[in-house]
Amino acid sequence: MAILEVNNLKAYYVTHTFGRSSTVRAVDGVSFQVNKNEIYGIAGESGCGKSTLLKAISGLVKPPLQILDGEVGYNFDDERLDILSLRDDRKRRKLRGARISLIPQGSMSVLNPVRRVRKAFEDVIYAHLDVSEKEFEELVSRHLLALGLDWTVMHTYPHQLSGGMRQRITIALSTILRPDIIFADEPTTALDVVVQRGVVQLIKKIKEEQQNTLIMVTHDMSIHANLCDRLAVMYAGEIVEEGDVQSIFSAPKHPYTTMLLDSLPKVGDSSARVSAPGAPPSLVDPPEGCRFHPRCPHVMERCRVESPVLNGLGNGHRVACFLQEGGK
Amino acid sequence: MLKKYYIPRLIQYFTVLFIGLTLVFVIPRLLPSNPVEHQLSRMMSQGQYLDPSAIEAMRETLEQLYGLKGGTFEQYIDYFKRLFTGDLGPSFTQFPTPVMTLIRQSLPWTVGLLFASLSISWIVGTVLGGIRVSFPRSRLARLIELLIMGVRPIPYYIVSLVLLILFAFLWPVFPMSGGYSMGVKVGFNARFILDLLRHAFLPILSMVIIEIGGWFLQMRNVASNIVEEDYVVYAEASGLPKAKIVFMYIMRNAIIPQITGFALNIGFIFGGALITEIVFAYPGMGYLLYSAILSGDYNLIMGINVFSIVGVSTAMLIVDLIYPLLDPRVRYQ
């Protein structure tokens, strides 16, 4: 059963300067479904709208970001709601952190620099649960123990911890209330490779233990290969290919996906890796037709004028490319 | 912690004091005029006949009194010796009243006036700045911003003169000048305190109106960067109550530079508020300094400068000492 349904979501950054408005079409007509208990990956280069998509589906919409169209529906066990039509700010707050939670990028400043780690836990837990101090300590120490963290971190300030440690604490904070859905927004950026592995395993472990749904956003295809059940590839604000990880990695259908996969190193292949040429287009003025056509090695006349739609290829694999329609 | 943080700051404090006080000593001695000769010629120009030996004796006495006896180095040592005993020498124009006495009379007025206006403008400006950023869509907050920004560029003396004309002349609800009314008994009684507040109201208001702008702007600018910080976004994503985010995440971080600014301004209090005190004829340090400059009373100028230097550097020291409490990151730097 789908726990998250996104339909034709359009999230644009609209800015007005001196009477001229400019629109960045960061997420442009995206639809997908995430099933309960699965790990859903979202891949794509920087500037493809991955983070904006996350903001929009978790309801963190602040100007200049605007939702122009679409719906984001959650099917929890006991209720069903559309987060974008929730007018009551308090209701949305109750949802965040408790039922849907975010693991942010592993940056330096996710934790408030002037508050001890304990305060961060207090803030999150007391915002959602009515518990005594003793229950609070029990809850946190059990969770920390499960994550292999020591209680002493509670007394530290964020700047006293290493980047990996901070990210573990952030993960602990995001998962302490056993949310139904976890959004992980590039949780491994800014961490070194050894720590990255630990963080990914930690997220996986929590997911298995808490039986929740995980949406993993990262540009790192190797993480998707290791972690995800299903994968969506985004390009220039649109989903260009979606399917289960096995079939995407073994037989990518979209030229962009092929490009991404070709840049990955493979065991036993010592030839130089080809990086994807060019860069994603400006989303202020995306190219006509298929947005990928300026970089596409198989570009045809039709691609320059018409834009392809996501078409099913059977067994849940969808792709937006004319090549798959026998247009060759 | 003690060795790495406090000791260097104490050393720095005393070094700054030493250099500042030395400059106060050196600068008047670089002036082309000599106060002893100045005084003597003033006496002689009054038409008095003095025989040369009497002039010589008088010169000696004056040099002793002014601390100008002996070589420059001897004077320098003597100057510090006298500073430690709290002796700043006599005022030249109100001879032989000691400078210390004059300052002691003016200081409470200035401190009261400036501390009140500083605190009020700091609190109001900081809170409004924080609110402006935390509630970007509030119309009221935007209106307040417009008002503050509109008033801020008005030259300070115009604000005080306008207030004076409006509320002391055209509609005389407040007194024109002075620190308290003639005939009111100075002391701790209700009548005196009320009178004091009435006299202080317009000067304080004039300073508050202008100073709010600075605090508001600084707070707004710092806070608008903090709203974009990851920890604020993450706090939003964790569903924390809005009030918690505003106070403990946005304001708590934005207030650190505000507190530095506040403490530094406390240091400046000891220099007085020149224009306010002149416009409102308020008997404070600024007024004292102004008359000292006009009459070339440089013992008094030096005395006021000593107070300013000690005030500013002590305030800096206090900021440094309490900073680790405000910002835990400072401790290990």
Q: Could you please describe the fold and organization of this structure?
A:
- The complex is a heterodimer of chains A (328) and B (333).
- Chain A has one domain: P-loop containing nucleotide triphosphate hydrolases (Rossmann fold).
- In chain A, 30% of the residues lie in helices and 25% in strands.
- Chain A contains ten helices and twelve strands.
- In chain A, a hairpin with a 4-residue loop joins strand 4 and strand 5.
- The model of chain A has no long low-confidence stretch (mean pLDDT 86).
- Among the domains of chain B are: 33-87, no CATH class; 108-284, MetI-like fold, CATH 1.10.3720.
- Chain B contains 13 helices and no strands.
- Chain B is globular and about 90 Å long.
- The model of chain B has no long low-confidence stretch (mean pLDDT 85).
- Chain B is an all-alpha fold and 333 residues long.
- Chains A and B meet through helix 2, helix 3 and helix 5 of A and helix 9 and helix 10 of B.
Number of domains of chain A: 1
Share of residues in strands of chain A: 25-35%
Distance between the termini of chain A: 37 Å
User: What is the name of the CATH topology of one domain in chain B?
Assistant: MetI-like fold
Instruction: Return the structural class of chain A.
Output: alpha/beta
Tell me the β content of chain B: under 5%
Major sheet of chain B, described briefly? none
What can be said about the biggest beta sheet of chain A? 8 strands, mixed
Greatest chain-chain contact: A-B, 35 and 25 residues
Radius of gyration of chain A: 21 Å
Q: Give the terminus-to-terminus CA distance of chain B.
A: 10 Å
* Number of DSSP strand runs of chain A: 12
Report the CATH topology name of chain A.
Rossmann fold
Helix count, DSSP H or I runs of 4 or more residues of chain B? 13
Helicity level of chain B, as a percent range? over 70%
What structural class is derived from the secondary structure elements of chain B? Answer: mainly alpha
Helix-strand pattern of chain A: EEEHEEHEHHHEHEHEEHHHEE
Shape of chain A: globular
CATH class of chain A, named Alpha Beta
